[in-house]
Amino acid sequence: MNSILLIGYSGHAYVICDIFESIGRKVVGYCENEYKDYDPFELTYHGRELSKEGLAALKANDYFIAIGSGKIREIIQSKLTEKGVKAPTNALHTSAVIAASVQLGKGVMVAARATINPLAIIGDNVICNTGCVIEHENRIGDYSHVGPGAVLCGNVWIGRQSFIGANAVVKQGIKIGNNVTIGAGAVIIKDVPDNTVVVGNPQRVIRTV
Q1: Is the full-model pTM beyond 0.70?
Q2: Active site residue 93
Q3: Catalytic residue among 12, 93, 136, 145
Q4: What is the pLDDT of residues 32-45, one digit of tens each?
Q5: 46 FRET partner, CA 20 to 30 A, in 38, 106, 180, 190?
């Protein structure tokens, strides 16, 4: 089994390191724009991901894009694919509950105590953060992020690059578009169109982007 490199090395990456440790896999290095003086997991620096050294290291190992922003993850993944780098591995914590019928994409993070119930479909490079609940038949689009403690009831659909804030609740059957931000603690009882920022209980739109 290959060792693992991270792309990005800050707060979100520390969670990823812990996930891989939980399943007995070794993170050995990272790619970043610059060397990090703070190195809590004692990783080796391999330069930028698109540098000669970085690409060679990524092609020789498994890797994970450990960056919270969906837009940045997509940009990096697109460039790596153009350079012939294989798809990223998944980071699935041992305490997560993932039903056998769930479909997982590539480069998916499922953090500690997260639950994904039957027939859910999770796209590529999706973050399912600590303790979130993704109920039956949900569909989560590529590069989206379900925050800590968020609850998505059954048959919720979420588009690409959307963010569901910590402890938000989304009613069953709701459709959330692409590039949507749902604020922490919001309660979503109506569909949300693309490029919208929504907060509150009851939900209210505060801006479009």
Answers
A1: yes
A2: no
A3: 136
A4: 999 999 999 999 99
A5: 106
